[in-house]
Amino acid sequence: MKVSDLRSMLVMSSREEAVFGSFDLPRDAFYPMLLSLKTGGAWSYSAEHLRSISVMRVHTDYDKSTKTGNTLEEIYLLVNPETVAREGLVNRLEKCGNREERVLLTRPYSITLKAERIFVARISTEKRTIMVREAADKVVAFTGPSAFYAAHEMEHLEHVEIDGLPMWSFKYELAESSGPD
C-alpha cells in the first residue's frame, strides 16, 4: 500500500468520525451505512440496545447529447425500524451470507418503514462528495430493488433465515433462435 493511500484513508476515517460523531447516537448504529458506503449493498446491525439497517437508492443523471453521466446514490440508515406497509409480490433470486446458492423467494414491490431516526447519505460521483443529514421524516417508502433489500434486511433484524426454492430446482430450456438480439 502506498503511503499516500494510507494517509488518504486516515483522513477519510477522521472525517467519518467527525460527521457521524456529531449525531447523538452510538457509533455502531452507523455500521450499516458505513458498510454500504464502502462496499455497496444493504446491511443490518442488531445489538441489545439498537437495531439499524441501510438501504440504497441509485439514480443516474445521463446527458444524451454528451453521452456522459453520473450516478447519485442515497443511502438511508434507519434506526430501530419497523415495517408499516408492504404492497405487491415480486419473485426474485437472492443469495445471502454463507448460503452457497441463490434461492427463489417473494419480496414486496414496495415497503414502507418507520424508524426512530432516519439518516441519508447522498453520494455525488460528479462532485465527489458525501452529504450526510438526518431526515425530518420518520417514515420512508422504497419500491423495486430498494424495497427488496429493505425487506431482506428487516428479516435479518427479525432473525428470519431466507428460505426459498433452490436454483437447482429450475430447468433449462432451449430458446428458438431468431437471429441477433
From TrEMBL:
Gene3D superfamilies: Peptide deformylase. It comes from the Archaea. InterPro entries: Peptide_deformylase_sf. This is Uncharacterized protein. It comes from Methanolobus chelungpuianus.
